[in-house]
Automatic annotation (TrEMBL):
The keyword Lipid metabolism applies. Keywords: Lipid metabolism, Membrane, Oxidoreductase, Transmembrane, Transmembrane helix. This is sphingolipid 4-desaturase. It comes from Steinernema glaseri. GO terms for biological process: ceramide biosynthetic process. It holds the Pfam family FA_desaturase. GO terms for cellular component: membrane.
């Protein structure tokens, strides 16, 4: 139990991720699976109820003892907030309003972000796209621990503390592995979140804001609901890169446990992921599954074969991209074009040019 991890490097492979080829095979064998694509009509109502429930909890805890605040943060608020991070995960795949309304999805992600206490929605979206597209690729997939994390957190006690502070590693890892320029929507996300936090402090007090933020940190650390961070891609069976879990925690995590199915079909809403396995069971029956996220965390800490190095990695196929899409600028330009702003500006420019030429001609005529 006190042994250090036995690995001293990641599990490097030269093969492509398995999800693309399996997706093609499943669609060919079961074309009806395409009917699961699209949006989840009930999703926005479920998420909105959770946001409002957390606001109500803030009001009820405004004068509570700190002991009650911390207990509520771990056993209730943290679970709700962790579910909101996974709602944001689903929203990042445009499963609320569809691919034709990207801005609506991003704005709804900011709404789901509110009870978490810190702005993560837009930043998560831009890095999560890379996680799916370049699964395990060096310096592109920031879900993989850094070499420093893997080298240092090798003993059971160190791995326990790594789990405890997992939210911080997830937050700061992109700043080390893959720096990207902030976008206009990220700035908006920050502004809306800090305005909401200010309102919580003003109307409910500092304890209520602490309830939200502490709950988010606790439930993403050493908490049963946080087992999915380890269960999804840490290698527990040789050669298998992604793992699913079909237990009860899926009820409050938008079926993120169906993770093999999710990577096979990222644009199927979490609500429909169980149907993937029902339609195409032959593609999943031989894969190792996790039956308990708590046991996954326990194994991660005590098993010397499992640690931060237990990830499959690939050489990067493409270079990093620093600049991202400033979506609000695109929408503003489209709006100005729609109302004729650019046409009017061009016409005024032409008139100014004509007046300038006329005045120049008059001045030249007087001089002559």
């Amino acid at each position: 139990m006190g042994q250090r991890v036995s690995r001293d490097d990641f599990m490097w492979t030269y093969s492509e991720q398995p999800h693309c080829s399996r997706r093609e095979q499943i669609v060919k064998a079961h074309p009806e699976i395409k009917e699961l694509f699209g949006i989840d009509p009930s999703f926005k109502y479920v998420v909105s109820c959770a946001v409002l429930m957390q606001i109500l909890a803030c009001y009820l805890l405004r004068d509570a003892d700190w002991t009650l605040v911390l207990l509520q943060a771990y056993f209730f608020g943290g679970v709700v907030n962790h579910s909101m991070t996974l709602a944001i995960h689903d929203i990042s795949h445009n499963t609320v309003f569809g691919n034709s309304r990207p801005l609506a999805n991003r704005l709804f992600g900011m709404w789901a972000n509110l009870p978490i206490g810190v702005p993560i929605s837009i930043a998560f979206k831009k890095y999560h796209v890379e996680h799916h597209r370049y699964l395990g690729e060096d310096a592109l997939d920031t879900d993989v621990p850094t070499a420093l994390e893997a080298k240092f957190f090798t003993s059971p006690i160190r791995k326990f503390f790594w789990l405890l502070f997992q939210p911080f590693f997830y937050a700061f890892r992109p700043l080390i592995l893959y720096k990207k320029a902030p976008t206009d929507l990220e700035i908006l996300n920050f502004a809306i979140q800090f305005a909401f936090d200010g309102l919580i402090v003003y109307f409910c007090g500092f304890k209520s804001l602490a309830y939200l933020i502490i709950g988010s940190l606790l439930a993403m650390g050493v908490h049963p609901s946080a087992g999915h961070f380890i269960s999804e891609h840490y290698v527990f069976a040789e050669g298998q890169e992604t793992y699913s879990y079909y237990g009860f925690w899926n009820l409050v995590t938008y079926n993120v446990g169906y993770h093999v199915e999710h990577h096979d079909f990222p644009y199927i809403p979490g609500r429909n992921l169980p149907k993937v396995r029902q339609i195409a069971p032959e593609f999943y029956k031989d894969l190792l599954i996790h039956r308990s996220w708590s046991y996954v965390l326990y194994q991660f800490v005590v098993n010397p074969k499992i640690g931060p190095y237990s990830r499959i990695k690939r050489k990067a196929r493409v270079p990093q991209q620093f600049y991202g899409n400033n979506m609000l600028g695109d929408y503003l330009e489209a709006f100005l074009t729609h109302i004729g702003y650019f046409q009017v500006r061009q016409a005024l420019s032409s008139i100014r040019g004509a007046i300038g030429e006329y005045c120049s001609g008059v001045v030249r005529g007087k001089i002559e």
